[in-house]
Design a protein that fits this description.
The complex is a heterodimer of chains A (about 250) and B (about 290). Chain A has about 250 residues and is mainly alpha-helical. Chain A contains twelve helices and five strands. Chain B is an alpha/beta fold and about 290 residues long. Chain B is globular, with a radius of gyration of 18 Å. In chain B, the strands form three sheets. An eight-stranded parallel β-barrel of chain B has the order 1-2-3-4-7-8-9-12, surrounded by five helices. Classes of the chains: A mainly alpha (about 250), B alpha/beta (about 290). Chains A and B meet through helix 1 and helix 2 of A and helix 2, helix 3, strand 5, strand 6 and helix 4 of B.
Chain lengths: ~250, ~290
Amino acid sequence: MLAATEQADLLAAITSNQPASLPGIAIYQSNRLAIAVHALEISFPTVRALLGEGFAGAVQRFIQQHPLQSGDWGAWGGEFPHWLLQQTELLPFVYIAEMAEIDWQLFQLERSADPVPDPASFALIQQYQPTDIRFVLSPQIFLTTSGFPLSKIWQYHQLAAAPSLLQEIKSALSDETYHEYLVISRLHWKAQIHLLDPAAFNLLNMCRQGKSLSTLIAEIERLQLDFTEWLSSMLKFGVITGLCTTYNDHVHRS
Amino acid sequence: MADDDSMISAVGIGLKSQHFDAAIQASKQDIDFFEVHAENYFNQGGLNHAMLEQISARFALTIHGTGLGLGNMCGIEAEHLSRLNQLVQRYNPMLVSEHLSFNQAMLNGQKFHAGDLLPVSWNEASFFAISDNILKVQDCLGRQILIENISYYHVPGNNTMLETDFLNMLCRQTGCGLLVDLNNLVVNAKNFSSEPPVEYALQWLKQINPQYIQQYHLAGSSNHEVDGFIIDDHAVAVTSDVWQIYDAVVRDTSTAPVLIEWDTEIPTWQVLIAQAAQAKQRLVQPLC
């Protein structure tokens, strides 16, 4: 038998969900599942807590449909949130799939390159018109909205969460008008979820679209927001890292 | 027996995230180097790199791969090798090692990954493919790598040579070195040999050209048995079988660095340091 064929046959036996026919294969099968469960426990800690004993079974079914394709278990599992959404038994609990996306984004942000704030770039405000400069967002952020209390569920599963939070979660889950606006960011090592009001969230979206400072200021005035407070929050969360010109070739010095 | 400090092997321990703080403050009298699993540092940034930067400023590192798939007949993954190379360039470790195992194959036209260390065949076709993979890795990294003997639960059916001959030939052909895991020898002996584990391991080591051995792993397995196989779980202290092999061979014939490996049921820092101290102590004075 060709060595390549033999390797393919062995791998097929190990990744199969059928009982092993050769001695020793069952050990590789259970080892693969144990590593997979451990990997997703790390990248989806909140979902692990929400699913409890059902988590390992979910991972076992997930890996059959989305097998590992590279040697980095930390990069495996990006399809897990969407897969959870498709599971009929979880249809009454759609928030679990949304929570999975939050878990995944938190995990990936913590693995990404360290943020590099650029405080010196704020000097641009002295040199350019507000029409010609814009805020620079950290590449390590994730913006999302949800009709579920994802930030509270996440917070509840962190260490030292207040027990009273559970009542707030139950209340929000039964409130059809509930909505939250979130930004996930990482200033130091640990990524954090920040709850924003709709206006602040909208301003961040405008930043993401590359809108100039003058456009942002006009929107802030229209909404009667406190610009300083908004900006200091965004800096504190590590969401905004600096300023840059909108068109490097067409700037007008003030 | 080594009677000069310069001839005594360096002793290290496998670094786990639970022990980052302790490792940063560790005494150089207790530990000579730390080993990290390459794939745990494939992320670009984050806390683990910040910790490792601090640790590597004081201690030598060895980087130990678990996912490159040197034994893949379908070749090694370019992206995985690229990330390993970035890590090696970043930390300039004392040694770089990887298991002699395969992890990927083509199934129905698609590459599948086992996420595990699967046994390779010890035959000519396998030898040429693996030699090619090792040479590619060494060319990319610009340095020698060590290949580690694995524990296994399945023996490929088309072996035509001994594992030891296969390893010697790979070292001769590619210029790579060997990382000998003594616990893997013990586990394989228990699972596949009628010989007592210590005798099996000593015989195995006699068949290896000692010049190729550049690192040892010492570990323990809990003798947990599944389907008639002892599982190599690295979940307990170095076993008496492994210490016996170490005393008989390593202490008197080698100055290769020695690593205490403990990968599951991670103990306290103090327990690991005590294991390292025992390895150092045995280098100069056999214990009962």
